[in-house]
Write a structure and sequence with these properties.
It comes from Idiomarina xiamenensis 10-D-4. It is an enzyme of class 1 (oxidoreductase). E1 component of the 2-oxoglutarate dehydrogenase (OGDH) complex which catalyzes the decarboxylation of 2-oxoglutarate, the first step in the conversion of 2-oxoglutarate to succinyl-CoA and CO(2). The chain has 935 residues and is of the alpha/beta class. It folds into five domains: 82 residues, no CATH class; 87 residues, no CATH class; 328 residues, Thiamin diphosphate (ThDP)-binding fold, Pyr/PP domains (Rossmann fold); 179 residues, Rossmann fold (3-Layer(aba) Sandwich), CATH 3.40.50.12470; 125 residues, Rossmann fold, CATH 3.40.50.11610. Helices cover 38% and strands 13% of the residues. It contains 32 helices and 25 strands. Strands 3-9-10-8-7-4-6-5-11 form a nine-stranded mixed β-sheet. Strands 15-12-16-17-19-18-23 form a seven-stranded mixed β-sheet, with helices on both faces. Helix 8 packs across helix 9 and helix 8 crosses helix 19.
């Protein structure tokens, strides 16, 4: 603002004393967001001494300066004209603000003292035109929550150093919410960085550290050189977790789900969850129970137990996870959401997720960002999670920050959701417990994620066989000389007379004796009661187990009419209205059912019986190809309505969410949900089947092998649009070959249904059959509206899913010279071409379930073709993809002895499909001709 304009503005009545409250409110708004006030006010506030850049000074503490200006409206608000006391008052408030913003950069976080943090000018007195000469001057402390309104500058400075530059470095000023910032300030500042613990509480912390240290030393001496991913250096994780669980119990939590990587996992299993040490020792010795599948290494294994807290027992579940470290986090969130739904706990008050990260992994793995991004969305929120980073300051062998990440802290990714981050020195266990309690209280108050950065070190290499000094010589010189956390804390308690040396030694001796006995060493451990859904009906069943699928035609018609019903006041988009008009005809039998109607009707039959269904995907409400329309959008007011949730009172509910644009984290979340809730039908739909590539790690390491490795059952269904319609390499193939390559041990079913009746029965079978294994579905695109891909209501009411379908045309089997086997959309291309040719010497057999291969059903169909010697497998995919290479042994076993099996399809290709429509059409015609033409 020009000087003349500023003078005129100041001469106005704006700064009159009666406006002081209004001015103070504007000033706070300016500090939170300078753009929220007018240009004039912004220029005025900016002219205050050093105000520019400050974002959290409480305005009421410079009211005296405003009042002084009000007495003389011509006086400019500048450093040259404002009274010195007022200038310094403002600068003291700016100093407080600077510590809140940047104090963490001077905090004593590194137990080894190796961190070279840059000096922050904002934290010096001189930067604010203050000095030690002002130490005895009394100033208003503003919003500094120290319990008094004024303090000497020396005391203020000392308090700020204790609060923000001690063992805790708090990052929270990036949070937009003033309420949340004020809440954190109150909790941090009121204790002046010195939390108070009773003698008994301190002894419990020491016992936990003794257990953490004792187990590692015991394992190191009993199994020297064995890989265990020791917790040594990060021992404070054990008192942290026990404090966290205890406080969660006090506040009403009933279940805690923990996800963590390798570092410290064995220690957490024994010293927190209560796994028997003898069981762990047996695993080190190579012993295992028979009949438990392939198994997995001990630092991937999960565990469940009950833990006594002052608020009652809490059920603990440590999730199984592979070496792809961070992928377990969305799995944990999905498991938590399932438990919340079961407990009717929409805010997460009864279920707490805890995820434990490595410093390199949380910064380096993209699934962390995806999981943070999901944290506040309708489909995936869990009421906030407590995220703990075991910050070894080195990732495998990478310790240079400029090699491991592009941010100052490994936790900076959390700022994307404005999560507060509490860095804490792991050698100060009382500070660790303090921030743990603070973090949980924040999560439970605001239902948002919070991060604890446990800054520690790794006493050994990445594993116990490594030699870390080869790559981190200076760090490991320091580590060798550095006392363990238990020793440091015991010495501290002896000095404070909280324990004596003999008592501290007894803790060590008692713990070692307990390990020798091999029994549970966790005092809070309690025998586990049933907390999760009952899995017993699904254990040990194979695919051919009987189940009741009966449903009457009348019941189907009634439900068909209900799913077409919506309020009269609801204005549908014209194309959607036409879809619903056609569906009503299908329900009444006046028109054959299409795919969208049959699929929706299958859901209706299940929710009508009380089943809970969960369907997520990037376009699941309407369906990518405009076929589902289960969620209706009012064209007048954008309100939504779901007929499936309005069938009758007391019905089950279906949740359909258009998800965040993620595959990896979302599929992992749904996997976690399905592993925690067998009574729900859980489904994920890819926008295009190809996009499931982004979730390949979930498919490889959880979905396909979780039962073999860990004994974890899971009924997750993947709906993957697949089919060659000339849409190019990335919109044709769901990579069917990958799922077939991973198929073994009856680990899942892979289906390619070709009719509405088939999808109806397939969906119902997935839930009604007492088997909980994944279902992989190659769903169609063009078949959604194909004139031949229709079914009558009788087909929906009668029968079950057919794993294989024989010839449907009236062809004399005795005249057949060639049998074409196929799967999916190409069937209709073959059928149409054969009919056009009026060809009656080729039969077409559809394989609707590719795995487990339906050998018995195919053998039954083949009885009519034992005389045929010419068999062809026809597919749309290139020869090196699709079904051919992975399933031809099944086909060879199914055809008559002496018969020949050949291939009709695209030539092998590095890409899934061509990008030119003309070339696609040429290839498609050629493969159909090759399949039907008898040479």
């Amino acid at each position: 603002m020009q000087d003349g304009v500023m003078r005129a503005w100041l001469e106005s009545s704006q700064l009159a004393g009666g406006n002081s409250a209004y001015i103070e409110a504007l000033f706070e708004a300016y500090l939170d967001d300078p753009t929220s006030v007018s240009d004039e006010w912004r220029a005025f506030f900016k002219s205050l001494p050093d105000v520019d850049g400050a974002t959290d000074i409480k305005h009421s503490q410079i009211r005296e300066q405003f009042r002084e200006m009000a007495k003389n409206k011509l006086k400019q608000s500048s450093s040259s004209s404002a009274p010195a006391p007022d200038q310094k008052q403002v600068r003291v408030l700016q100093l407080i603000n600077a510590y809140r913003f940047r104090g963490h950069q001077h905090a004593k976080l590194d137990p080894l003292g190796l961190w070279q943090q840059e000096q922050v000018p904002d934290l010096s007195l001189a930067h604010h035109d203050l000095s030690k000469d002002d130490y005895d001057t009394e100033f208003n402390v503003g919003s500094l929550a120290v319990g008094q309104e004024t303090m000497k500058l020396g005391d203020i400075h000392q308090a700020l150093e204790k609060i923000y530059c001690g063992s805790v470095g708090a990052e929270y000023m990036h949070i937009v919410s003033t309420e949340e910032k004020r809440w954190i300030q109150q909790r941090l500042e009121s204790v002046l960085g010195t939390p108070s613990f009773s003698k008994d509480e301190r002894q419990l912390i020491l016992k936990a550290l003794t257990a953490a240290d004792g187990l590692e030393k015991y394992l190191g001496s009993k199994f020297p050189g064995a890989k265990r991913f020791s917790l040594e250096g990060g021992d404070s994780l054990i008192p942290l977790l026990k404090a966290l669980i205890n406080r969660a119990g006090e506040q009403g939590s009933k279940e805690v789900v923990i996800g963590m990587a390798h570092r410290g996992r064995l220690n957490v299993l024994v010293n927190v969850l209560g796994k028997k040490p003898q069981d762990l020792f047996d695993e080190f010795a190579g012993k295992h129970a028979e009949g438990k599948g392939s198994g997995d290494v001990k630092y991937h294994m999960g565990f469940s137990s009950d833990f006594e807290t002052p608020g009652g027992n809490i059920h603990l579940a440590l999730a199984f996870n592979p070496s792809h470290l961070e992928i377990v986090n969305p799995v944990v969130m999905g498991s938590v959401r399932a438990r919340m739904d079961r407990l009717q706990d929409p805010e997460g008050a009864k279920v707490l997720p805890i995820t434990i990260h490595g410093d390199a992994a949380i910064a380096g793995q993209g699934v962390v960002q995806e999981t943070f991004n999901m944290s506040q969305t309708r489909a995936f929120q869990v009421g906030g999670s407590v995220r703990i980073v075991i910050n070894n300051q080195v990732g495998f062998t990478t310790s240079k920050r400029e090699d491991s990440r592009s941010t100052q802290y490994c936790t900076d990714i959390a700022k994307m959701v404005q999560a507060p981050i509490f860095h804490v020195n792991a050698d100060d266990p009382e500070a660790v417990v303090f921030v743990t309690q603070l973090a949980l209280d924040y999560r439970n108050t605001f239902k948002r994620d919070v991060v604890i950065d446990l800054v520690c070190y790794r006493r050994h290499g990445h594993n116990e066989a490594d030699e870390p000094s080869a790559t981190q010589p200076l760090m490991y010189q320091q580590i060798k000389q550095h006392p363990v956390p238990r020793e440091l804390y015991a010495q501290r308690l002896v000095e404070h007379k909280a324990v004596d040396a003999d008592q501290a030694q007894r803790f060590i001796d008692d713990y070692r004796d307990a390990l020798d006995r091999g029994e549970v060493v966790v005092d809070e451990y309690r025998p586990m009661k049933a907390h999760s859904s009952d899995w017993s009906p699904y254990i040990g069943n194979d695919w051919d187990v009987d189940y009741d699928s009966a449903i009457s035609r009348d019941e189907l018609q009634a439900l068909g009419e209900k799913i077409c019903d919506y309020p009269d006041s609801f204005q549908l988009q014209s194309r959607v209205a036409k879809v619903y008009s056609e569906r009503l005809k299908m329900a009444n039998g006046d028109k054959q059912a299409d795919w969208g109607f049959a699929e929706t009707l299958a859901y209706a039959t299940l929710v009508d019986k009380g089943v809970h269904i969960r369907l997520t995907g990037q376009d699941s409400g309407r369906g990518t190809f405009f076929h589902r329309h289960a969620v209706l959008h009012n064209q007048d007011d954008a309100s939504v309505y779901m007929p499936l949730n309005n069938l009758r009172d007391g019905q089950g509910q279906i949740e359909i969410y258009d998800s965040v644009l993620s595959e990896e984290a979302v599929v992992a979340f749904e996997y976690g949900y399905a592993t925690a809730e067998p009574h729900a039908l859980v489904m994920w739909e890819a926008q295009f089947g190809d996009f499931v590539n982004g979730a390949q790690v979930v498919i490889d390491q959880f979905l396909s092998s979780g039962e073999q490795k860990w004994g974890r059952l899971c009924g997750l269904t993947l709906l993957l649009p697949h089919g060659y319609e000339g849409q190019g390499p990335e919109h044709s193939s769901a990579r069917l070959e990958r799922f077939l390559q991973l198929s073994a041990d009856h680990n899942w079913s892979v289906c390619v249904p070709t009719t509405p009746a088939q999808v109806f029965h397939m969906i119902r079978r997935q839930h009604l059959r007492p088997v909980r294994r994944p279902l992989i579905v190659m769903t169609p695109k063009s078949l959604l509206r194909h004139p031949l891909a229709v079914s009558g209501m009788d087909e929906l009411a009668d029968g079950v899913f057919q794993n294989a379908i024989g010839e449907i045309d009236d062809i004399d089997a005795k005249k057949v010279k060639r049998v074409v086997l196929c799967s999916g959309k190409v069937y209709y291309d073959l059928l149409a071409q054969r009919r056009e040719r009026e060809q009656n010497d080729v039969a077409i057999i559809r394989i609707e379930q590719l795995y487990p291969f339906p050998a018995e059903e195919v053998a039954e169909i083949m009885k009519d073709y034992q005389h045929v010697k010419d068999f062809v497998w026809c597919q749309e995919e290139p020869q090196n993809q699709g079904v051919w290479y992975n399933s031809q042994h099944h086909f060879m076993a199914a055809i008559p002895e002496g018969a020949k099996l050949t291939y009709a399809g695209r030539a092998a290709s590095a890409a899934p499909a061509v990008g030119y429509l003309s070339e696609h059409n040429k290839q498609q015609q050629q493969l159909v001709d090759d399949a039907l033409t008898i040479k």
